TrEMBL record:
<dbReference type="InterPro" id="IPR032476">
    <property type="entry name" value="CPT_N"/>
</dbReference>
<keyword id="KW-0966">Cell projection</keyword>
<feature type="region of interest" description="Disordered">
    <location>
        <begin position="769"/>
        <end position="796"/>
    </location>
</feature>
<feature type="transmembrane region" description="Helical">
    <location>
        <begin position="104"/>
        <end position="126"/>
    </location>
</feature>
<protein>
    <recommendedName>
        <fullName>Palmitoyl thioesterase CPT1C</fullName>
        <ecNumber>3.1.2.22</ecNumber>
    </recommendedName>
</protein>
<keyword id="KW-0443">Lipid metabolism</keyword>
<dbReference type="InterPro" id="IPR042231">
    <property type="entry name" value="Cho/carn_acyl_trans_2"/>
</dbReference>
<dbReference type="InterPro" id="IPR023213">
    <property type="entry name" value="CAT-like_dom_sf"/>
</dbReference>
<dbReference type="InterPro" id="IPR039551">
    <property type="entry name" value="Cho/carn_acyl_trans"/>
</dbReference>
<keyword id="KW-0256">Endoplasmic reticulum</keyword>
<dbReference type="GO" id="GO:0098794">
    <property type="term" value="C:postsynapse"/>
</dbReference>
<dbReference type="GO" id="GO:0005739">
    <property type="term" value="C:mitochondrion"/>
</dbReference>
<comment type="similarity">
    <text>Belongs to the carnitine/choline acetyltransferase family.</text>
</comment>
<feature type="domain" description="Choline/carnitine acyltransferase">
    <location>
        <begin position="175"/>
        <end position="752"/>
    </location>
</feature>
<dbReference type="Pfam" id="PF00755">
    <property type="entry name" value="Carn_acyltransf"/>
</dbReference>
<keyword id="KW-0012">Acyltransferase</keyword>
<dbReference type="GO" id="GO:0030424">
    <property type="term" value="C:axon"/>
</dbReference>
Length: 796
């Protein structure tokens, strides 16, 4: 999602005027550090690694094996073929009375060695099995005999009750693609958007790169791939995120919305109490590894490493680079309301506070009449300032207000109790949704602590939202947590008839602790400047959200097409109609099939998609011709998506090559060209990962409406979408108001028209379009099945 903005602005501060290649310390030093960081992470979670590292075996399996060996010895059998006797001879001689003890120790050592060997063999076998990606390349709905055999073997070697991190030791490492293949795919991806002259120049510098520099840079990447857990992910976090000096607001954060049509309670404190309790329940399950690992096809595990930093995590600003601070535990949340900061404890005598007790604490904050201290109200605007500025100010703040700063940065997460309502309203559905998205993405510039891993935002009418900082993990991780939170607080915890949390208040709880900031005079000017810049940045963002209800995933499935590829190809048509030209398109997909994998880019603007768009705009082309081209475009997108997921994408490999070239002070016109590209259309799908938590058939409105992010280019769009059930697709569009080339509402209308035009190519789609022409514009009435009733709509 938001990583596209950072990737576009990526300029590592490693450039030098020196043109010579230096084979010395810098790059080798960085590769060594990558490996050391990997091993340090393994050692820091040794106990959890032991519990999950023996998977699919268990500690009890060692006891079973030891008992079996002892039984064999009792029956005068030697399953070790003489090895136990040699082990016994090597043990110290403690005298005749300890002869039996030596035998038991020898059996225990032999059992341990045999047990470890079996576990290692299982891990190696499972890693080899998980390295197979042929299943990804097969046609939808078809499964070859090798894949069926592979599935059966994975089922045998995978065990029955995995914990969250059980598969980490068995995941394969992300492969380094062939540099020749990467360059070829890159040239193919830019051909539709370059003129003949520009393409010839790009091809020339690409061939020069392959001849002169590629093999050397590739060698370093291969070396790193053998030594570190992942050849690209730590550099991606370092240079794309932590070394970025831009404001986190809009540039690095993204948002997730509440239920679109339903607000379980209008009581702000109650909603906050249940939501915070549900989030902490998720953390408890996370600490105990009770969250099941994500499995594709029910069998293929994804990497779970990013789950470690969801809670108790803060991005600390630095002058040249930030760092991520993660605490093992935190027993409080930081709360912001009307310019004041509070510390709210979440546990009492080592037990998690009940939702009703948390509601009581939040209500006390809402009822507190004390005013904000001078400049305290706008203090959080500093977290929206450029990182160098915030780092310098934070040094003074840490000296003068260390306790308050520690309470915020050491919190489990940040909670903002907004004084304004939000969400869909009957009076103006379109404008209310746009304002809701804008409030989550940017707020007022001073009411979010953007450094925290995520901020829970609770509006005055009970509506919820999440603002997430991007560096520590990607959207599927926070989305997984958010789905659990919404389902738990609504369906399991629930509310009483009067809208309050169930249970009883606890009068013995101490009052929430008001945080006091001793702000020196020199910080006041910095706060004012940061607030002005944050308001300017916030005011420049235009957000547009609309649910498209003419058709959804079920219709696309009946067309026997991939739903994501259907939308991506349609977006090319909509964007061309909006701008009159094609552009590089960034779609984020995951590489979590590999250990510590994060994301890869799918370059969705393909030659096939462009041919389809041109055909749709050519009145002489028949529907049959357009449909044939559409299917080719969808098939091409699917091939690119599967290649990216299996580690054969383009952009992360080129990124890593560029980083190595900078370490070596090696200038490459080709790599410079690659990393000067502008992504004017950035897209992302937000999937529903835990369908079992939501009953979309009986409660179709109880599904999160997804989220969005800012544009990656000053004259570009950010577009995310989510399939809500089977018949609704929610789109989130962002752009800059300062641009004369973009308009989020205009693109939204183009998307709706393009979806209907594409659907009309199919026999059933003609009926959908005719029905759509007879109804009001979906922006004016974004209601699937009429859920805008007084019982379930949020009113402000």
């Amino acid at each position: 999602m938001a990583e596209a903005h950072q990737a576009v602005g990526f300029r590592p501060s490693l450039t030098s005027d020196a043109g010579e290649v230096e084979l010395g310390a810098p790059v080798l030093h960085e590769i060594c550090l990558s490996g050391l960081r990997s091993w340090k992470r393994h050692l820091s979670r040794f106990w959890n690694d032991f519990l999950t590292g023996v998977f699919p075996a268990s500690p009890l399996s060692w006891l079973f094996l030891f008992s079996a060996i002892q039984l064999a010895c009792f029956l005068q059998l030697d399953p070790s073929l003489g090895l136990m006797e040699k082990i016994k001879e090597s043990l110290p001689d403690w005298g005749g009375q300890h002869h039996r003890l030596r035998g038991v120790l020898a059996a225990a050592l032999f059992a341990s060695c045999l047990w470890g060997t079996l576990i290692f063999t299982l891990h190696v076998a499972l890693r080899l099995l998980l390295s197979y990606h042929g299943w990804l390349l097969e046609p939808h709905g078809a499964m070859s005999s090798p894949t069926k055999t592979w599935l059966a073997l994975v089922r045998i070697f995978s065990g029955r009750h995995p914990m969250l991190f059980s598969y980490q030791r068995s995941l394969p490492r992300q492969p380094v693609p062939s540099v020749q293949d990467t360059v070829r795919k890159y040239l193919e991806s830019v051909r539709p958007v370059l003129s003949d002259k520009d393409f010839d120049w790009t091809s020339g510098v690409a061939q020069e790169f392959l001849k002169l520099q590629a093999s050397l840079l590739q060698w370093y990447l291969q070396l790193k791939s053998w030594w570190a857990s992942n050849y690209v992910s730590d550099w991606w976090e370092e240079f794309v995120y932590l070394r970025s000096r831009n404001s986190l607001m809009v540039n690095s954060n993204y948002y997730l919305m509440d239920f679109l049509y339903v607000t379980p309670t209008p009581v702000q404190a109650a909603r906050a109490g249940n939501a915070v309790h549900a989030l902490l329940l998720y953390r408890h399950r996370l600490d105990r590894q009770e969250i099941l690992p994500t499995l594709l096809m029910g069998m293929r595990p994804l990497c779970s490493a990013q789950y470690e930093k969801i809670f108790n995590t803060t991005r600390i600003p630095g002058v040249h680079r930030d760092h991520i601070r993660h605490l093992r535990d935190s027993r409080h949340v930081a709360v912001f309301h009307r310019g004041r900061f509070f510390r709210v404890g979440t546990h009492s005598q080592s037990r998690l506070l009940s939702p009703r007790a948390l509601e009581q604490q939040f209500q006390r904050i809402l009822d507190d009449p004390s005013p904000a201290c001078p400049h305290e109200e706008h203090l959080a605007a500093l977290t929206a300032a450029p990182r160098d500025t915030w780092a310098q100010v934070r040094r003074s703040l840490k000296t003068q207000a260390q306790e308050a700063l520690e309470a915020v940065e050491g919190a489990a997460f940040f909670v903002s109790l907004d004084s304004e309502p939000a969400g869909l309203t009957r009076e103006d559905p379109a404008a209310s949704l746009d304002a809701y998205a804008h409030a989550l993405l940017a707020g007022r510039g001073h009411d979010r602590w953007f450094d925290k891993s995520f901020s829970l935002i609770v509006f005055s009418n009970g509506k919820l939202g999440l603002s997430v900082e991007h560096s520590w993990a990607d959207c599927p991780i926070s989305g997984h947590m958010w789905e659990f939170t919404l389902a738990t607080e609504c369906f399991q915890l629930g509310y009483s008839a009067d809208g309050h949390c169930k249970g009883h208040p606890d009068p013995s709880l101490p009052q929430p602790q008001r945080l006091h900031w001793d702000l020196p005079d020199k910080i006041h000017l910095s706060i004012s400047l940061a607030l002005r810049a944050a308001k300017t940045l916030s005011g420049n963002i235009e957000c547009h959200v609309f649910p498209f209800s003419r058709f959804g995933k079920s219709f696309i499935k009946r067309c026997h097409l991939s739903s994501d590829s259907f939308i991506q190809t349609t977006l090319q048509l909509a964007h061309f109609r909006d701008r009159g030209q094609f552009c590089l398109t960034y779609e984020s997909t995951m590489t979590r099939l590999f250990l510590e994998g994060r994301t890869e880019t799918v370059r969705s603007c393909t030659r096939e998609a462009c041919n389809f768009v041109r055909a749709m705009e050519d009145k002489e082309k028949t529907d049959a011709q357009c449909l044939a081209l559409f299917r080719l475009a969808v098939d091409k997108h699917q091939a690119l998506l599967k290649a990216a997921m299996s580690g054969q994408g383009v952009d992360r490999h080129l990124f890593a090559l560029y980083v190595v070239s900078q370490f070596l002070h090696l200038q490459s016109p080709f790599l410079d060209q690659v990393h000067s590209e502008q992504w004017q259309l950035v897209t992302s799908q937000i999937p529903v990962q835990q369908i079992h938590l939501f009953d979309v058939h009986n409660y179709p409105d109880y599904v999160s409406s997804g989220g969005g992010f800012g544009p990656a280019d000053d004259h570009g769009y950010g577009v995310s979408y989510m399939f809500m059930g089977d018949d609704v697709i929610t789109f989130h569009i962002s752009s800059n108001k300062s641009s004369t080339r973009t308009d989020s509402h205009r693109l939204g209308q183009r998307i709706q028209d393009a979806l209907l035009d594409v659907a009309a190519l199919f026999p059933e789609g003609e009926r959908l379009k005719r029905r759509g022409l007879g109804e009001e514009d979906s922006e004016k009435a974004p209601v699937p099945g009429g859920p805008l009733s007084s019982d379930n709509i949020c009113t402000s």
